[in-house]
Write a structure and sequence with these properties.
495 residues, Rossmann fold, single chain, seven-stranded mixed sheet
Length: 495
């Protein structure tokens, strides 16, 4: 399928838009898109940078005296031919009023021809007088076809310089392309080159290497953490009602639901007591549906620079859409999208972020299933709790006896302990009022006691550790009682 970005750029140029602003670091990709658009529309391409001036891409020399922004604008004022003019990092020169005026005049002239000025760079801050003339264009992350082409280009380039063995089946090749989704073309080429040059071959094993590189790249470039499907082996004790709901909701991704005009499920909000499995539930949802998991740290959305917080949210949602179908886990959503900031405390930033997120959640078309978790209901804006924003809102309480037995069993098994060697009934009784996280930490601490005493872990040692632990249900009794009271009758219990 053709690139969405190419189609949109062609449409904007053909519909006589004189000024496009593309905020991106993918300059070379824009170059390729403009070259294709120009070829298909029959328009020449001109490129400008402050180091080389204005040059037509099919000619060797730059136009005279065009290296400076004012020199460029004077030259453009003399041109009468239609074309696409790609100005690199030009926005940094728009602090000069004379340059801004000359751009306005050029844009007014371009509007009479089939000419378009394309500004690229990151960031792009346009003066107010230019915003009415400009189209702020968002460059979509590359689709499968573009990634396939980038893979072929990287292979060709590497083969020309190195002896490389390509031993990959068609199915694995498609898996490799899927592993590259969510990366820019430059990042994709880097990940592929790294995997190939590590052992001078391309095979199915490289998919794991590329996935690991991708996880690091995504974490370095924004507030997103990536959990590959293959590495998600998390288990969840209890949560029977949530699991039953997920089984029904999974049908929404299939053809039978589409035939009934049912849209795929959009997401769930999981609220409740700390340490009782909300975060674990997000991981288990992704594992159950065999989907990759993206974690958005809502607290990391905020940036001290104006506009950067909103941009962080846009990047995160764009990344999620590019990797669909995917589960997007927003951990402790109240920290980034809560209402505590208010319009007076932070200039309305919190409200704008909430509004942007809810609009995206309501209108997006891509199969992104959002799992949001929250500990503090008091700071969540009311509009987020309204039915319809999420498919369902679940409440997680302290685990009951059956769930505590399951949790104890899971954590003993995880640490190579035989649950049948323990008195589970006594352990279940001793863990009343404990959260799942507190039970896990008790098992871990008891194992360290056993290692220190050079003995095997047994029921008595674990009971000793539990007896010395003060759970949240005791230390924060009033807070948990208030949370339970507020959730009663409003949200669906997970068990």
């Amino acid at each position: 399928m053709p690139s969405t970005s190419l189609h949109d750029i062609k449409t904007l140029i053909a519909s006589l838009h004189p000024l496009l602003a593309i905020e991106t670091v993918e300059e070379e990709r824009v170059r390729g898109l403009l070259a294709t658009a120009g070829s298909e529309l029959g328009l020449p391409i001109f490129e400008w940078s402050v180091t080389s001036g204005l040059k037509r891409t099919d000619q060797p020399n730059a136009a005279h005296n065009t290296a400076s922004p004012l020199g460029l604008m004077k030259h453009l004022a003399t041109l009468r031919l239609a074309g696409i003019f790609h100005l690199k990092d030009f926005a940094s020169h728009l602090q000069d009023a004379t340059v801004v005026r000359s751009v306005r005049e050029a844009v007014q002239q371009f509007a009479k021809h089939r000419s378009t000025l394309v500004l690229t760079g990151d960031p792009i801050e346009l003066p107010q007088v230019l915003t009415s003339h400009a189209v702020q264009f968002r460059l979509h992350l590359p689709n499968a076809e573009e990634l396939r082409a980038a893979l072929a280009t990287s292979l060709k380039s590497l083969k020309a310089r190195h002896r490389i063995n390509v031993a990959i089946e068609p199915d694995d090749l498609e898996r490799l392309v899927r592993a590259l989704r969510g990366l820019t073309l430059s990042q994709a080429r880097q990940a592929v080159s790294y995997a190939i040059l590590e052992d001078r071959k391309l095979d199915a094993d490289d998919i794991t290497t590329i996935t690991e590189r991708k996880a690091r790249m995504l974490e370095e470039s924004g507030p997103i953490e990536y959990f590959p499907t293959e590495e998600n082996r998390f288990e969840l004790g209890g949560f029977d009602k949530l699991k039953a709901w997920l089984e029904r909701a999974s049908l929404g991704f299939g053809p039978k639901a589409a035939a009934l005009n049912l849209t795929p499920p959009r997401g769930v909000l999981i609220v409740g007591v700390q340490g009782c499995g909300k975060s674990l539930a997000a991981k288990v949802i992704a594992r159950t549906w065999k989907l990759p998991l993206l974690k958005l740290d809502a607290g990391r959305l905020y940036d001290k620079f104006v506009g950067e917080s909103e941009k962080n949210l846009r990047r995160a949602t764009q990344l999620a859409e590019s990797m669909a179908p995917v589960v997007l886990w927003i951990d402790e959503i109240e920290k980034g999208l809560g209402a505590t900031g208010g319009s007076e405390a932070d200039g309305g930033l919190s409200r704008r972020l909430v509004g942007s997120f809810l609009t995206w959640q309501q209108e997006r078309k891509a199969e992104v299933f959002v799992v949001a978790t929250a500990n503090d209901l008091d700071v969540l804006p009311p509009e987020m709790l309204r039915k319809g924003r999420f498919d369902e809102i679940f409440f997680v309480d302290l685990p009951d006896a059956e769930e505590r037995q399951a949790i104890v069993t899971i954590h003993l098994n995880l640490r190579n302990q035989d649950p049948e060697a323990f008195d589970l009934a006594r352990l279940v009784a001793a863990t009343e009022g404990f959260s799942g996280a507190e039970i896990e930490q008790a098992v871990i601490a008891a194992l360290y006691r056993a290692l220190h005493g050079e003995r095997k872990l047994d029921t008595d040692l674990l009971l000793q550790e539990l007896a010395e632990t003060v759970p949240l249900s005791v230390s924060r009794r009033e807070d948990i009682a208030r949370l339970r009271q507020r959730a009663k009758g409003r949200f669906v219990p997970v068990s």
